[in-house]
Amino acid sequence: MDDPTPNPPRDTAPHAGVSRRSFIATLGASAAAASLTSAAEAARTRLAAGRTKDGPKVLGPDPVQVTLRINGNPMETTIEPATTLLEALRLNLGLTGSKEICDRGSCGGCSVLVDGKLTVACMMLALDAVGSEVTTIEGLAKGGTLDPVQAAFIQHDALQCGYCTPGLVMASRALLNANPKPTLAQIRSGLSGNICRCGTYTNVFNAVLVASGQQPVIDSKGA
User: On the CB side of 50, how many CA atoms lie within 13 Å of its CA?
Assistant: First the structure.
């Protein structure tokens, strides 16, 4: 016999209290928050200890004191971990020869030598230069005598506004260190990472040729 009592209507209205769904969601969020808190606490512990779990010593996030070896001399400074080598040179150490132009490693204006390798200083952290020998444009001349590249740049008027010149000189020095007598094609290739907006490339190429003991080229105007 059928039950005359009708089934009670299903309650689809929202509850004023805690629903099952909101309870589960809250439980998951709480677990995630607890996990993040634990990870953050572990990171703080490692930072306080000065070391990662398996890696090298951690520096920062506060400014740290470092010693950079620049042009043969140790130079101490205090920098934030995100400081680039270019910023440390120009802002902290007063070596403003390296220029900030593009600030993205595409123009070569901030070129320096790091352990003899041509490096754009705007793309390298200063902390990564600790323990390396950094040579800037200020360190090329020795005992009051210009580097042959510098002298050749002057002789062949290889500059106009001069803003890109330090980078071009450093790139030229790096090229001649690796290849003492490069061909014109090799010079063009070796300096291809440096942009001169004034367009003095022919004079720059002539300067590098002369600095390497070779005859300069003659451009289309016979200059």
Answer: 2
**Cα gap 120→68, rounded to integer Å:** 16
By mean pLDDT, which of 5-9, 160-164, 167-171, 185-189 is the weakest? Answer: 5-9
Closest CA to 111 of 167, 69, 63, 57: 167
- CA separation for the pair 182, 69 (Å, rounded): 30
41: enclosing H helix or E strand: helix 20-49
| Nearest residue to 211 (alpha-carbon basis) of 157, 139, 155 | 155
Distances in whole angstroms, Cα of residue 50 to Cα of each of 27, 44, 45, 84, 134: 35, 10, 9, 22, 26
Give the predicted TM-score (pTM) of the model. Answer: 0.75
Within 8 A by CB and 6+ apart from 38, the residues are none
